[in-house]
What we know:
Strands 2-3-1-4 form a four-stranded antiparallel beta sheet. By secondary structure, the protein is α+β, with helices and mostly antiparallel strands. It contains four helices and four strands; from the N terminus they run βααββααβ. α1 packs antiparallel against α4 (about 75-85). It has a single domain, classed as Alpha-Beta Plaits, CATH 3.30.70.100.
Amino acid sequence: MFRHVVMFTWVAGATEEQKAEVEAGLKGLPAVIPEIRRYDIGTDAGITPGNYEFAVVADFDSAEDYLVYRDHPVHRAVIADIIRPIVANRASVQYSF
């Protein structure tokens, strides 16, 4: 198995509507990218100050399947059209498990 984890913080002016669009856009990806085996997304619980605000954890059968997801045009559109306009910081990691 292969896992991709990405975390975001939003720009100060990001609206709740924009954040909801990110969530909706990402939630639609498993329906169009069959290589995704498990897909969990969520907003930080707000318990620890300084955390990232939003996270995605995606599991795949292989690194090759992750690359299909990474480069998929629908995923790329969500990034370009919905995420990039409000992202302040991003961190990610991929690993086999």
